């Protein structure tokens, strides 16, 4: 069992530290989302993720009906580096409340 | 030379004089806020009270009322002491 | 010229004071993109990085997502608000 010091969230980055080796959700700019296992991170929120699913959402306007067409594209990547400045939100896996 | 000019007011002093008064904040992009200035720091992050937020969207102007906020100074473009986009 | 700052200090609340006062409270965090996050503020740092609990994501006022815990990178933050909000659509 982790000691209280290790498990306490005293600053926001502690939330990321506690998610190491867990699958996390990352919301990025330009409508990109990632789900993968967090291997490493730094204070800029640069991150190394493994077994990553990337979801890209695009909205197109139909030329004739002017309807919005929302498309999501999924792809898998075994390993990647995320540059921190594109990160909007990081969410750890749901813990038991 | 400029330092000898008694009428010169540092920008931060001007903001300091607004504490306790209404201030109009125009952001980069299509957002404006009006509220009572409670305090600010060196980045001009500001604590505002009784805030009205104006967002210009495709559907028109959206107005949001907020009790108290900490506004990030990063995207502030213009500060207008006392001013407001609404006459009321 | 002297005294102006002191006179105001009774009601002055710096960003630091605000941050100390709002931990553990329900907040609304608005991003520059216009997206709102509502939840309980766990903690935050000088970059306005924020850790929230029971986070709900609102896009155009509509609930889009829920997160148990969420870390929000500070550079995206427009403001942190303490209170419930009322909405009205102006002309």
Automatic annotation (TrEMBL), chain A:
One of its GO terms (molecular function) is RNA binding. It is found in: Nucleus. The keyword Ribonucleoprotein applies. Keywords: mRNA processing, mRNA splicing, Nucleus, Ribonucleoprotein, RNA-binding, Spliceosome. Its main location: nucleus. Pfam families: LSM (PF01423). Residues 11-96 form the Sm domain. The keyword Nucleus applies. One of its GO terms (biological process) is mRNA splicing, via spliceosome. GO terms for cellular component: Lsm2-8 complex; spliceosomal complex. InterPro entries: Lsm3, LSM_dom_sf, Sm, Sm-like_LSM3, Sm_dom_euk/arc. Component of LSM protein complexes, which are involved in RNA processing. Component of the cytoplasmic LSM1-LSM7 complex which is involved in mRNA degradation by promoting decapping and leading to accurate 5'-3' mRNA decay. The cytoplasmic LSM1-LSM7 complex regulates developmental gene expression by the decapping of specific development-related transcripts. Component of the nuclear LSM2-LSM8 complex which is involved splicing nuclear mRNAs. Belongs to the snRNP Sm proteins family. This is Sm domain-containing protein. It comes from Fagus sylvatica (Beechnut). The lineage of its organism: Eukaryota, Viridiplantae, Streptophyta, Embryophyta, Tracheophyta.
From TrEMBL, chain B:
GO terms for cellular component: Lsm1-7-Pat1 complex; spliceosomal complex; U4/U6 x U5 tri-snRNP complex; U6 snRNP. It is found in: Nucleus. SUPFAM superfamilies: Sm-like ribonucleoproteins. Transmembrane segments: none annotated. The keyword ATP-binding does not apply. It comes from the Eukaryota. Keywords: Acetylation, mRNA processing, mRNA splicing, Nucleus, Ribonucleoprotein, RNA-binding, Spliceosome. Plays a role in U6 snRNP assembly and function. Binds to the 3' end of U6 snRNA. LSm subunits form a heteromer with a doughnut shape. Belongs to the snRNP Sm proteins family. This is U6 snRNA-associated Sm-like protein LSm5.
UniProtKB/TrEMBL annotation, chain C:
GO terms for molecular function: RNA binding. GO terms for biological process: maturation of SSU-rRNA; mRNA splicing, via spliceosome. Its main location: cytoplasm. Residues 14-86 form the Sm domain. One of its GO terms (cellular component) is sno(s)RNA-containing ribonucleoprotein complex. It is found in: Cytoplasm; Nucleus. It comes from the Eukaryota. Keywords: Cytoplasm, mRNA processing, mRNA splicing, Nucleus, Ribonucleoprotein, RNA-binding, Spliceosome. It holds the Pfam family LSM. Component of LSM protein complexes, which are involved in RNA processing. Component of the cytoplasmic LSM1-LSM7 complex which is involved in mRNA degradation by promoting decapping and leading to accurate 5'-3' mRNA decay. The cytoplasmic LSM1-LSM7 complex regulates developmental gene expression by the decapping of specific development-related transcripts. Component of the nuclear LSM2-LSM8 complex which is involved splicing nuclear mRNAs. Belongs to the snRNP Sm proteins family. SmF/LSm6 subfamily. This is Sm domain-containing protein. It comes from Fagus sylvatica (Beechnut).
């Amino acid at each position: 069992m982790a000691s209280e010091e290790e498990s306490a969230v005293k600053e926001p980055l502690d939330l990321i530290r506690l998610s190491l080796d867990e699958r996390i959700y990352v919301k990025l700019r330009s409508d990109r989302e990632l789900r993968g296992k967090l291997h490493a991170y730094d204070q800029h929120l640069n991150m190394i993720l493994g077994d990553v699913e990337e979801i890209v959402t695009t909205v197109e306007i139909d030329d004739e009906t002017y309807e919005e067409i929302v498309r999501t594209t999924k792809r898998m990547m075994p390993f990647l580096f995320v540059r921190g400045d594109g990160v909007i939100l990081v969410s750890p896996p749901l813990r038991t409340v | 030379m400029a330092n000898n000019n008694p009428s010169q007011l540092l920008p931060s002093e001007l903001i300091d004089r607004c504490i306790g008064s209404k201030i109009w904040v125009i952001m980069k992009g299509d957002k404006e806020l009006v509220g009572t200035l409670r305090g600010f720091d060196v980045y001009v992050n500001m604590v505002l009270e009784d805030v009205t937020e104006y967002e210009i969207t495709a559907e028109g102007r959206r107005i949001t009322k907020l009790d108290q906020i900490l506004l990030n100074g990063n995207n502030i473009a213009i500060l207008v002491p006392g001013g407001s986009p609404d006459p009321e | 010229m002297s005294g102006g700052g002191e006179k105001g200090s009774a009601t002055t609340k710096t960003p630091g004071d605000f941050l100390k006062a709002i931990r553990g409270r329900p907040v609304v965090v608005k991003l520059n993109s216009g997206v709102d996050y509502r939840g309980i503020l766990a903690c935050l740092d000088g970059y306005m990085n924020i850790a929230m609990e029971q986070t709900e994501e609102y896009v155009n006022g509509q609930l889009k997502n829920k997160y148990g815990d969420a870390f929000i990178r500070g550079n995206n933050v427009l403001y942190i608000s303490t209170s419930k909000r009322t909405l009205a659509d102006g002309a």
